[in-house]
Design brief:
Layout lengths: L5 E9 L2 E10 L7 E5 L10 H7 L4 E5 L18 H15 L4 E6 L1 H10 L6 E7 L4 E2 L1 H8 L11 H11 L8 H9 L2 E3 L5 E3 L4 H9 L5 E2 L1 H5 L5 E6 L7 H7 L7 E5 L11 H12 L1
Parallel strand pairs: 3-4, 3-5, 5-6, 6-11, 11-12
Antiparallel strand pairs: 1-2, 2-4, 7-10, 8-9
Helix pairs in contact: 2-3, 5-6
Length: about 280
């Protein structure tokens, strides 16, 4: 069993052509039990390093960089930076993995991708963990995210970049200095022009603002089509997933199990052992 990830790529298609999506794979490559972990809007596969390491003895853990982020290629046309494209890319990835069923952990956007896939007839998703994602995405959170996504600032040092990450990601909740440095390093790259920049296509911001509605994003039809066992993790201070929405998600559709984390907003990082234990217990319990 490997305790470090293997980096691989799979070729996917959009309406603008082909692109390669990178993914990190942990554990035994012959293990038929596969866990797919998908990150949030401007994050990357490495967000799941701790979770993947903790679960790699039980699963073949696969953590993709959604197209336009991390080590994946950028799309030729930013109009395709949208959940339908991401779902299609994940179908291609699962075909590459050569398995019929997967378990899924998705944070924020990664949860919305998981919902879209889990709602399809014949879905490969057998168990679903939604980390701060749900049937209604509050408009207030979309406005907050829209203020910074795609801004593409340059930072003179990694320390300066970390201060920006600490500010933007304050809703992640309390973390140690080492954890904040990790959360910064994995989404930063040195810029050819000098300094540091976020390692994603800034045109994602254009697509995000173009797709943002006047009000909330309402996905109850998608939610009600999901049948697999589902866990919803909500930060108690979340501005994206309201308590009322989360509680309604326990009463309809897959009738999710709900866990709320005090002192955290959008979104729990799943770096801490107590958060990892919640995911582990649901997936394996």
């Amino acid at each position: 069993m490997s305790v470090e990830p293997r980096l691989a790529r799979v070729q996917c298609a959009s309406g603008a052509g082909l692109h390669r999506m990178a993914y990190r794979e942990w554990g035994d490559p012959a293990n038929p039990d596969v866990l797919v972990c998908v990150h949030g809007l401007t994050r990357c596969a490495r967000d799941f390093d701790c979770l993947a390491r903790a679960l790699s003895a039980r699963y073949r853990v696969v953590c993709p960089d959604v197209v336009g982020r991390g080590d994946s290629e950028w799309l030729a046309d930013p109009v395709f930076y949208a959940v339908p494209q991401y779902v299609a890319d994940m179908v291609t990835l699962i075909a590459r993995l050569d398995v019929e069923r997967v378990h899924w952990v998705g944070t924020s956007m990664g949860g919305l991708i998981g919902m879209g896939l889990a709602a399809l007839k014949g879905t490969p998703v057998g168990r679903l963990v939604l980390n701060e994602a749900g049937a209604v995405v509050a408009h207030a959170s979309l406005e907050r995210i829209g203020k910074y996504v795609g801004a593409d600032p340059r930072f003179p040092s990694l320390e300066a970049a970390e201060q920006m990450v600490r500010t933007v990601a304050a809703p992640f909740g309390p973390h140690t200095d080492a954890e904040w440095r990790f959360l910064t390093e994995v989404v930063m790259r040195k810029s050819p022009e000098g300094g540091w920049r976020f390692h994603y296509d800034p045109r994602i911001g254009e697509a995000f603002r173009r797709q943002t509605p006047e009000g909330d994003i309402v996905l109850w039809d998608t939610w009600d089509a999901i049948a697999c066992p589902t866990l919803v993790i909500r930060g108690a201070q979340s501005d994206l997933l309201s308590r009322a929405t989360a509680e309604e998600m326990t009463r309809r559709g897959p009738k999710a199990t709900l866990v709320e984390l005090p002192g955290v907003g959008h979104a729990p990082t799943l770096l801490h052992e107590d958060q990892i234990a919640i995911v582990r217990e649901f997936l394996l319990g």
